[in-house]
């Protein structure tokens, strides 16, 4: 394992020009929420250096009352934690952290430990890097990321954890490249309620056209062997509007790896086929296999769509025409694209809620302006649910009841508006999600089932 | 000891009650060492009721005081809770919204979202302070919701940077003319989350409860509870008494009238000790000092004391007789079905004392329990409230009685020691481990489920249902691996690391 000079602070977590106001009913958590990103890698255990409630809060809200996803092997409310007390605030917590890391070796069986800090050590100035480096020197597989809650949200925390593993664990590149191997950087684990099923489908699609995939997170990842293999990949695929771009840039600098950025996570046949052709072209894959795979997927997909057509064309009791999406840019963009281009629905309001870094916002706006040849959408970036709900109330949904793609926070609003709600993001407390996916060819069919089961249930 | 309501911060549990979070022995030993029976280990320091505590190097995530503020102050129907913190503390909005909505539905109240606002402190605020953001959030709360009160939960971050929450709150109170109540609940300040209950109740006592009640409501009983189904209204109705449920899902007015009530009761002394004691101290509202209302012995004694205090002895005796006659045959039916079963209780402290009594009463064997902390004494310092003493005197000892703040790594060894057929839990994080060992759990989200006479029947039925669940758990047990090392799983002593550290 490599021991590398550590940056004192990941560049992603920087104080922005602070226009942040109060947030009612949260749509993301803080940087230490990325403990669940660490836990999303098979056999990786987070060690949290923070107050006694931080781990419980992040897990219970991101992973339990959000689709009831579960803790995974190493996550949960009971990850190792210093449960920092008055003593650590006054005298510093470095010794306590050292004691915890040492004793963790006696109790827990993991391939890698990821130390994450909370507000307390980041405020009192514990030298966590120095504590962790001592263990690294002894050969303990361990890295650390500074994820104090005031520094950023779980998106930037995720990038800090990813960077920490790449810089402190993955090691230098031996110069070997494997053609056809791709690293996938896409949806944020646990924050995105459907990430497990979605990553499985994305992996299936990429393998379908002949690629070998390091999916890195979730049950379909082989775990740390994939992470060690990162530098060998032919390229990085960033499949999201912005999350993962800094990781791809980091790898471009460190191991001279090219990356392909596709902002739209594909839902449905049109988008999935276009996605696969784009990837295939970038990877230089032979088109016969790619086209054969696309053809077989489309045949299956349109068989089901054909059946759905009867319902969609002559259901007597009205189907929604206008929709709104409230959610993270990744799913918001993906859903809007699918609903507009596949179903011909009319976007009434799209609100992006994860506070994307300022430098990526214009690119996100541009993607929404280019939804279809005849549809352009102006989005809002809002994080405070009170303002979000006011904005949706003021949107023009015409005379039909609207359908809202949002979260549990929209339950009361949708009742008030007599519309339908599909919970597609954090927090989704009225969804139980195992392997369900809403992306790719197969996920799109599940999504249609969910949308229209909700709609027809109005009279149930 | 007099509770000090003059200062804005509540004294922590460990300061007031000598609360511990690590201990292992028999229930009788713990009861003896606790203040109710004048125990003193001698070597542990100044306070007479201090019990020797096990402290180890390895700890897993616990729960903080601020979360308990969320689950109480955040669930008042016409108030707003402001979390003066970075956004991460606001994560709790999700769980407490789900719990609140389920609680409202159980009580037949209109289901609605919670009203929590995070001040969203960022890096810049750590340097320049977050007072302006707090003032802005209070203004937003008032404009958006026209609340009857605004609570402010502090955080580790706001505490460390030293934001003057008091001044901001006072200024806002003058401006808006409603109580603006700072609740000091920094997670690092207390080793046990139950201090958060006290912090909420302290703030309510200081700024909401009517100081000079003009009238007395002689038939009104404050019932300190959480979200449980309404079992108290029919029960107290038998005595001609009305229920004032506090704190969760109450209105600000219902909180304000607590000082007018005749008496205060609760389902759990861990939750209710501070508020009930302070109401008696400040306003003469009597706290019912009796065993908690669980199983026959506890419920009988509790009802008789309530009847004595409110002058309703005859109604109580009639009710007790009728309930005995109604419930005893039901329990006689349950007992053979439950015979030979072994249960394990892993819940909050005083609550566990009640539940073990219920299990023993319906014929379930209990030789192990994990409580998340232990208060050697409650705020009343009255031996009639010695819930653990009542348990061992009425139902006998519990061989493996453990105190631990939800340390899952110890829970494995604890279960191996006892090998129960099922566990009863509140709080998350333990049942998932038991499940993977093939042991089903009964999660008591409805804290009133096992209360009173009917509670014995309810719990018996839940146990029978949970036993069928074993099919699921035994299947998954064969399929999953735990993150713990074999060497740790083989360790017979759950506190081996602590004893090593102490030695």
TrEMBL record, chain A:
It is an enzyme of class 1 (oxidoreductase). GO terms for molecular function: nitrogenase activity. The keyword Zinc does not apply. Keywords: Oxidoreductase. Residues 31-455 form the Nitrogenase/oxidoreductase component domain. Its EC number is 1.18.6.1. The keyword Lyase does not apply. Gene3D superfamilies: Nitrogenase molybdenum iron protein domain. Coiled coil: none annotated. PANTHER family: LIGHT-INDEPENDENT PROTOCHLOROPHYLLIDE REDUCTASE SUBUNIT B. This is Nitrogenase molybdenum-iron protein beta chain. It comes from Rhodopseudomonas rhenobacensis.
UniProtKB/TrEMBL annotation, chain B:
It comes from the Bacteria. SUPFAM superfamilies: Helical backbone' metal receptor (SSF53807). This is Nitrogenase molybdenum-iron protein alpha chain. Its EC number is 1.18.6.1. The lineage of its organism: Bacteria, Pseudomonadati, Pseudomonadota, Alphaproteobacteria, Hyphomicrobiales. GO terms for molecular function: nitrogenase activity. InterPro entries: Nase/OxRdtase_comp1, NifE-like. Residues 73-467 form the Nitrogenase/oxidoreductase component domain. Keywords: Oxidoreductase.
């Amino acid at each position: 394992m490599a021991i590398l000079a550590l940056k004192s602070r990941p560049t992603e977590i920087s104080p922005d020009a602070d226009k942040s106001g109060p947030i009612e009913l949260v749509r993301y958590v803080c940087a230490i929420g990325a403990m669940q990103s660490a836990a999303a890698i098979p056999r990786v255990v987070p060690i949290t250096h923070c107050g006694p409630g931080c781990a419980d809060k992040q897990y219970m809200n991101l992973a339990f009352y959000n689709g009831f996803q579960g803790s995974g092997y190493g996550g949960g409310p009971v990850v190792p934690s210093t449960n920092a007390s008055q003593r650590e605030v006054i005298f510093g917590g470095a010794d306590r952290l050292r004691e915890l890391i040492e004793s963790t070796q006696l109790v827990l069986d993991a391939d890698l430990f990821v130390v994450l800090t909370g507000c307390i050590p980041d405020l009192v100035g514990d030298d966590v890097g120095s504590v962790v480096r001592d263990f690294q020197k002894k050969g303990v597989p361990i890295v650390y990321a500074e994820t104090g809650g005031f520094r950023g949200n779980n998106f930037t925390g995720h990038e800090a954890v990813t960077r920490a593993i790449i810089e402190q664990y993955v090691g230098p590149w031996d110069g070997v490249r494997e053609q056809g191997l791709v690293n996938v950087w896409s949806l944020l684990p646990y924050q995105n309620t459907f990430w497990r099923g979605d990553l499985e489908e994305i992996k299936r699609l990429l393998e379908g056209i002949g690629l070998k995939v390091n999916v890195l997170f979730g049950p379909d990842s082989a775990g740390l062997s994939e992470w060690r293999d990162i530098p060998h990949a032919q390229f990085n695929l960033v499949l999201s509007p912005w999350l993962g771009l800094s990781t791809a840039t980091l790898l471009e600098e460190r191991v001279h790896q090219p990356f392909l950025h596709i902002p739209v996570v594909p839902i449905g046949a049109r988008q999935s086929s276009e996605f696969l052709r784009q990837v295939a072209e970038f990877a230089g894959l032979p088109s016969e296999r790619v086209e054969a795979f696309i053809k077989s997927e489309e045949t299956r997909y349109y068989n089901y769509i054909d059946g759905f057509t009867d319902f969609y064309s002559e259901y007597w009791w009205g189907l929604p025409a206008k929709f709104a999406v409230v959610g993270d840019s990744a799913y918001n963009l993906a859903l809007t694209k699918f609903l507009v281009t596949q179903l011909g629905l009319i976007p009434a309001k799209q609100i992006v809620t994860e506070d994307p870094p300022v430098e990526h916002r214009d690119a996100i706006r541009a993607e929404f302006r280019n939804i279809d040849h005849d549809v352009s959408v102006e989005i809002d970036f809002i994080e405070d649910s009170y303002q979000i709900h006011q904005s949706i109330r003021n949107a023009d949904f015409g005379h039909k009841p609207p359908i809202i793609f949002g979260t549990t926070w929209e339950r009361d609003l949708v009742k008030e508006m007599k519309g339908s709600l599909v919970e597609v993001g954090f927090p989704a407390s009225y969804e139980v999600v195992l392997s369900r996916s809403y992306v790719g060819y197969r996920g799109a069919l599940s999504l249609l089932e969910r949308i229209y089961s909700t709609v027809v249930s109005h009279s149930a | 000891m007099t509770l000090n309501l003059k200062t804005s911060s509540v004294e922590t549990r460990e300061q007031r009650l000598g609360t511990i979070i690590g201990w292992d022995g028999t229930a009788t030993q713990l009861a003896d060492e606790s203040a109710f029976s004048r125990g003193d280990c001698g070597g542990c320091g100044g306070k007479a009721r201090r019990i020797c505590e096990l402290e180890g190097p390895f700890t897993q995530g616990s729960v903080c005081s601020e979360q308990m503020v969320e689950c109480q102050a955040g669930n008042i129907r016409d108030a707003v809770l402001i979390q003066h913190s970075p956004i991460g503390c606001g994560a709790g909005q999700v769980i407490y919204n789900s719990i609140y909505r389920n609680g409202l539905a159980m009580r037949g109240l209109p289901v609605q979202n919670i009203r929590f606002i995070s001040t969203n402190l960022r890096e810049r605020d750590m340097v320049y302070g977050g007072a302006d953001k707090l003032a802005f959030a209070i203004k937003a709360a008032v404009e958006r919701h026209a609340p009857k009160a605004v609570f402010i939960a502090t955080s580790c971050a706001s505490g460390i940077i030293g934001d003057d929450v008091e001044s901001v709150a006072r200024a806002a109170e003058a401006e808006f003319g409603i109580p603006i109540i700072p609740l000091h609940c920094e997670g690092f300040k207390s080793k046990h989350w139950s201090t958060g209950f006290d912090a909420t109740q302290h703030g309510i006592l200081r700024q909401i409860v009517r100081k000079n009640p003009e009238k007395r409501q002689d038939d009104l009983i404050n019932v300190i509870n959480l979200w449980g189904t309404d079992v108290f209204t029919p029960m107290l109705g038998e005595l001609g008494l009305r229920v004032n449920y506090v704190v969760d899902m109450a209105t600000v007015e219902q909180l304000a009238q607590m000082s007018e009530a005749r008496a205060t009761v609760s389902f759990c002394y861990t939750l209710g000790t501070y508020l009930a004691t302070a109401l008696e101290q400040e306003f003469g509202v009597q706290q019912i000092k009796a065993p908690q209302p669980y199983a026959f012995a506890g419920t009988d004694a509790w009802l008789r004391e309530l009847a004595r205090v409110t002058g309703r002895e005859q109604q109580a005796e009639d009710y007790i007789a009728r309930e005995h006659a109604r419930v005893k045959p039901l329990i006689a039916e349950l007992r053979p079905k439950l015979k030979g079963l072994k249960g394990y209780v892993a819940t909050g402290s005083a609550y566990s004392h009640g539940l073990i009594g219920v299990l023993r009463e319906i014929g379930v064997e209990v030789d192990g329990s994990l409580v998340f902390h232990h208060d050697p004494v409650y705020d009343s310092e009255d031996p009639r409230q010695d819930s653990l003493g009542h348990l061992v005197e009425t139902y006998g000892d519990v061989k493996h009685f453990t105190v631990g703040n939800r340390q899952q790594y110890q829970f494995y060894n604890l279960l191996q020691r006892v090998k129960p057929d099922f566990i009863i839990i509140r709080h998350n994080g333990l049942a998932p481990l038991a499940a993977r060992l093939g042991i089903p759990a009964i999660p008591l989200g409805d804290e009133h489920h096992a209360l009173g006479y009917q509670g014995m029947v309810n719990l018996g039925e839940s146990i029978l249902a949970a036993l069928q669940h074993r099919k699921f758990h035994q299947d998954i047990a064969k399929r999953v691996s735990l993150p713990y090392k074999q060497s740790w799983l083989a360790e017979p002593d759950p506190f081996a690391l602590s004893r090593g550290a102490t030695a």
